[in-house]
Specification:
By secondary structure, this protein is mostly helical. Helix content is 48%, strand content 0%.
Length: 131
């Protein structure tokens, strides 16, 4: 269980519609990201999207998986933004359009990339999308 509820069910319909275990995983993820120094600001939906994007790139589906998170450099694990959307939709009860790949880069992963918590698989690609 997360030490803090970062997202309140009554303030975010998509969060409220998720299973309790997924809600706990998202709050736990936000706690970890805050511990890394990521500012936990924004709408509840923005926080939810950032958390599930992080979970996708780390290949985490449940709290116990944090012990085995993926490391891009050492595990040769890399997802394209459309892969992230697919992962999130399959594992976290989302219905994100495959056409929302720009939102993944520009919004959901932005703070994680700036903080070097998530690395771009190809730092030279789409640099204009990280503005």
């Amino acid at each position: 269980m997360s030490p803090k509820n970062y997202i309140e069910k009554k303030k975010c319909k998509t969060f409220a519609s998720k299973k309790r275990k997924v809600q706990e995983l998202i709050n736990h993820t936000l706690y970890i990201l805050e511990s890394f120094g990521v500012p936990i600001e924004g709408t509840p939906r923005r926080l939810e999207r950032m958390a599930v994007a992080f979970l996708a790139v780390a290949n985490v589906k449940k709290i116990e998986d944090f012990e085995f998170t993926k490391d891009l450099e050492n595990d040769n694990y890399s997802l394209k933004t459309r892969d992230i959307i697919e992962y999130v939709n399959e594992n976290f009860q989302e219905k994100i359009s495959r056409g929302s790949y720009d939102d993944i880069r520009r919004k959901d992963l932005k703070l994680l990339v700036v903080g070097a918590i998530v690395l771009q698989s190809n730092p030279n690609s789409a640099t204009n999308d990280m503005d």
